[in-house]
Amino acid sequence: ELADEDDNSSEDVISEVEESSITVYEAAMEEETDTISSSTSTNTTTPTPISTKRRQATASPNTNLSGTWSPIVTPTFKSQYDDYLKNCSQSFMFRKVIVNGIEYQRETIHQLDNGQSLQIIAQNPAGNWNRTLIASDVENPINATIVDPDKDTVNVEAWWEENGTRHKSVLRGKPRLKGGVFETVRYLDEDDEDILVCESTFLPSELEGSSSSFKYGSVLWRFQRVG
Question: What is the pTM of this model?
Fold first, then answer.
């Protein structure tokens, strides 16, 4: 798949990054330790999804997100990503380390079973996170329980929208977020199928007041196909 503002040393910050960064990305995103293969289980008792517009379990026959993708990094994107991490209650030093290393990030996707399974390996210098997102329709929703890189057990629900052209996933249950939710939408650029677009949104809990360090945040990623 977060750090407190009062880190006492850069050594603490680096340790904090190694334990947390992929979770924010997914996620932010959805972050890291050494190479991890997430354990996944499923059940059909799910909370009400954030959105189910034209929800389906499979992808369009013409949609395939498979590939290895590298983020397109610009000064504007770095600024927007820094703001996003700040709204996720990340410290200044944590944000500095993550944002400055973002160009080394890679995401490898394997789309299987007509899109019902999306295997994702998020890679960065600190480590990898392997997980599988299982898509389901509105009649038979599946809530997958996975272990994130922080070894927290979280719930992930996924489905396809827009006639099977956009893959949406919602991550809930991260203890540190106090009820906050990560929402991610992935799709191919309409004009260039070698560009993967990823909309990452953080939704703080409605129970958190205006003084909370958790704020609504969103960032738009664009990835170039590199494999």
Answer: 0.75
